[in-house]
Each structure stands twice: as C-alpha cells, then as structure tokens.
Design a protein that fits this description.
Helix content: 40-55%
Order of helices and strands: HHEHHHHHHHHHEEEHHHHHEEEEHHHH
Structural class: alpha+beta
Shape: extended
Distance between the termini: 85 Å
Number of helices: 20
C-alpha cells in the first residue's frame, strides 16, 4: 500500500536578477559595450540616455523611469495566476568562452593559405584534400591530427575516398607555402622545413640541419657534449649551429598583428596619485547611460484603458510588462556592477596602498580573496569574479587585479612576505646565475634561505613553473 509522505527541505536558489548580475559582473570592460548593444537590440523597452546625469530622489534611489502610471496598472486584470511564467527574463546572451573582441582585420592565415593553394591549379580531388588539410591547421601552424583521420573526414564528410599517401602528397605541397614551417606535424619537422628554405649553404646551416635531423632528442634535452661528440665538431661550431636553430620560428602560425582573436588591453579602473592622495575611477565604458523607454511605459497605461478581456490585449500587456521588467532588471544589474567594482577596487587599493603610492613591488603585502571579501562584506566568489577578468591602470603601468593577490611566506624575522616578492627574488637569482652551470631547485632554496625566506624546495619548483622558467638542465647554455 502506497503511503503519502511529506518532506520539508530548505533550498537556496538564485533569482533571475542575481543571475543577471553575476553574469554582468564577470564581463570585462571591452565586452560590456557589446553586451549592452545585444540587450538594446532584443529589448525595445531599453534605450540609451542623453548622457545627462539624473538626480536622486529623497530616498537616494534612482528615479523611476517607468512613469507614474506604470505602478498603477492592475496586471491581475489581464493575467491568470498561471501566466506569471511569462515574466521570466530572457538569457542575457553572454558566453564565458567567447571573451574575444572582433576587430577589423586583413586576410587571416587560413585565407592566405587557401589563396596559395589556388595557385597550384590542382584537380578537384586534390583541391578538396588541400582545403581539408588547411582546415586542420591549429593556431600554432601545425597539423597534429593523423593523416589517416583526415582521409576519414573526407570520406565521411564529403564522400571523397583517398589514401593516406594521397593526403601526404598534397601535404608536402602545402608545406612549401608561406610562412616557412607551416603545416608541420611536429616541432622537428617544422624546423627542418625552415632549414630547407635557406639557399646559401654554410657550415652552421649544415650542422644545424644535422642536429635537428639526427640529434633532435639530445638537442631538446640540451645534451650538448653528446651532440658535439657524435658530430665531431668543436664547441664554437656547435654554439653557432645552436644559435642558428634557436632563431627559427617554432610557431609559424602563431598570434600576430593580424590575429582576429587578439584582445584589446582595456583597463577597467584608473588609479592616479596626486600629493599622496589616491583617486580611483571606473572606465567610462563601465557606466553607460541607460533608461526605460518613455513610449514603452506609456504603452502599458494605454492598454490599461482598453478591453481587458480581449485576448490580443492580454498578450500585448504580457509582452510589454516582460520587456519593462527585463529592462529595469538590466539597468539595476549594471548599476550594481559599478558599485561592486568600485568597492572591490577601493578595498584593494587600501590594502596595497604603499604599492599604489610608490610602485615598488616589494611593498606588496600578502593578500588573498578572503581579505577583500571580509573588508567589503561580500562573498569570496564575488571578489573572484571581479579579480579574474579586470585590470587597473596605474601611474606605473597596467596590472591585472589578480596581480595583487598572493599568499604569504614566513621570514626569519617572523613577518610575512608576499609570494610575489619571493618570485621576483627567484627570477633575479636565475637571471644572474652562471649559464653554463645553472642553479638547481635545491640550490635556489638555499639561496632564498640565506636571504631570510623560509621556503621548501617543492615551493621553489612551483614558483619557478609559475614564472615559466624551465629546470636547471634546460637552462644550460654553452
């Protein structure tokens, strides 16, 4: 026999307004304008203002842009209780993965390669193979997919059946295109393709070609003595060959001036110092002048005087009310975003005041997200959203907000030093090391301890990796 059981549970859910605010908060300044334009296009109740400052009312709240008649309309006359689902806000169209700003551009790498492919006057099948190969080139300029997989793509996608050898024959032609090294399948092939482009033979070119062709593994591990012994060359000849190789381009398709996904470095905040007074301001793009359309709010009042039982009128009122609510919520989210950004930046500046006054990185204090969230009485996730995608322009340059957050390292004096300070010293030690005998992580740990920093070897390794500095063996030079 079935029993009817009643369970009570407590759940926390975000409101549509909270969701919209969270999404807007993580949008960087360069994307905000695009996001606002999207909202203006889909919501006729929202429009740009005339850039004139609006006065606050008695309660220091924003004036009601809906008009006096908006609040007097009895929506219940139009809608049944189950029709309130129509008030849900549309998704705001922001995609976290799409953080790039479209900019004007000349031909892309793919377009240039396709243009060069056209010059070969290939038959129809080879042309299709070439287009498939060019489409498989990644951002660095490599084809990392097996040729067998590309042949399968042609078979399943375009009903073109070719062998792996036929694909390879077209690939070899594409590898002669500009830029040199394009469409290589690995770094070794990329370097060989570039070395083959040099017309004038020389001793260093010959040695460089032989190193990449037959001693590539030893070269990547910097086993120079083994290379020197196998090629039977002196140290000076080896050094010239290594220099020749290191001047080649390991990423022939890499990001350049014409890369369509390049981002503008647009600061979200400006911090200036005058007579030891720090002034903080938001980028003007963060404060758009948005308002509710007067004609749209008046439209609701007009329909209030119409036949309330008419189905078409009810549907129109639902649409108008939904758009007015969405517009008001969007404006509120933008204003809340501005306030949160400023409060967070003010707290960061107050915490790192010495740095913003002098620009001395050694003055940066250990600071974590919780320090700021406690100071502004907001959740850590909110501070994280601000810090992860925002930057600030100072008198000493532009810095991402994440730059000012770092953990603390104990010193012999009992004080905490910023990990940023330790990383700077670590970089200084490596920059000044003897290149023929670079310092290992153990030796770096001992050098840091001599300077009063209590730090473990594994932490040294972690900081070194964060600085994109290879291990001692790979830093060795002739």
């Amino acid at each position: 026999m079935q029993k009817l059981v009643l369970n009570q549970s407590l759940q926390q859910r975000l409101s549509p307004q909270q969701i919209q605010f969270i999404k807007l908060l993580q949008v960087p300044t360069f994307e905000l304008d695009h996001r606002i334009q999207e909202e203006l296009e889909v919501n006729p109740a929202l429009e740009m203002g005339n850039n004139e400052p609006e006065s606050l009312n008695e309660n220091n709240t924003e004036p009601d842009d809906f008009g006096n008649d908006y609040e007097d309309v009895d929506i219940g006359d139009y809608l049944n209780q189950d029709e309130y689902s129509g008030y849900k806000m549309y998704g705001d169209g922001w995609n976290e993965e799409n953080e790039t700003l479209p900019i004007a551009d000349s031909n892309t790498l793919t377009e240039n390669l396709l243009q060069q492919l056209g010059y070969l006057r290939l038959n129809e099948i080879d042309q299709k193979i070439g287009e498939q190969l060019i489409g498989s080139i990644d951002d660095d300029g490599y084809i990392r997919r097996p040729l067998r997989s590309i042949a399968n793509d042609l078979a399943f996608g375009q009903n073109i059946y070719v062998s792996e050898q036929e694909v390879n024959a077209v690939l070899q032609k594409i590898q002669l295109f500009d830029p040199p090294g394009i469409a290589a399948r690995d770094l070794r092939e990329c370097l060989l393709l570039q070395l083959d482009r040099f017309d004038e033979p020389s001793e260093e070119l010959k040695n460089a070609h032989e190193i990449v062709k037959s001693q590539f593994e030893e070269f990547t591990k910097k086993h120079y003595s083994a290379i020197q012994k196998k090629l039977d060359i002196d140290q000076e000849s080896l050094k010239e060959a290594i220099d020749f190789i290191t001047h080649l381009n390991p990423k022939p398709g890499g990001v350049g001036a014409n890369d369509p996904t390049a981002k503008y470095l647009l600061p979200d905040f400006m911090v200036t110092v005058e007579n030891d007074d720090i002034e903080i301001s938001l980028n003007s793009k963060n404060a758009p002048d948005l308002r509710i359309s007067k004609s749209f709010s008046e439209m609701l009042d007009t329909y209030d005087k119409s036949d309330k039982k008419n189905k078409a009128v009810k549907e129109t009122v639902t649409f108008v009310k939904q758009k007015l609510d969405a517009a008001k919520w969007f404006i509120d989210a933008i204003k809340q975003r501005q306030q949160t950004l400023l409060r967070t930046m003010e707290a960061i500046v107050a915490f790192q005041k010495e740095f913003f006054l002098e620009g001395d990185e050694s003055k940066l204090k250990p600071m974590i997200l919780k320090d700021i969230s406690d100071k502004i009485d907001m959740d850590i996730s909110t501070v994280s959203r601000v810090a992860n995608s925002k930057s600030v322009q100072t008198d000493f340059g532009i810095y991402p907000l994440k730059y000012f957050f770092s953990e603390g390292i104990s010193t012999e004096s009992g004080e905490d030093a910023s990990s940023r300070e330790v990383k700077n010293i670590l970089k200084e030690l490596i920059d000044n090391e003897l290149k023929s005998a670079p310092l290992s992580d153990d030796k770096l740990e001992k050098e840091l301890k001599k300077r009063g920093y209590k730090i473990a070897r594994r932490t040294v390794a972690k900081y070194r990796e964060q600085l994109n500095i290879p291990v001692a063996r790979l830093r060795k030079e002739l």
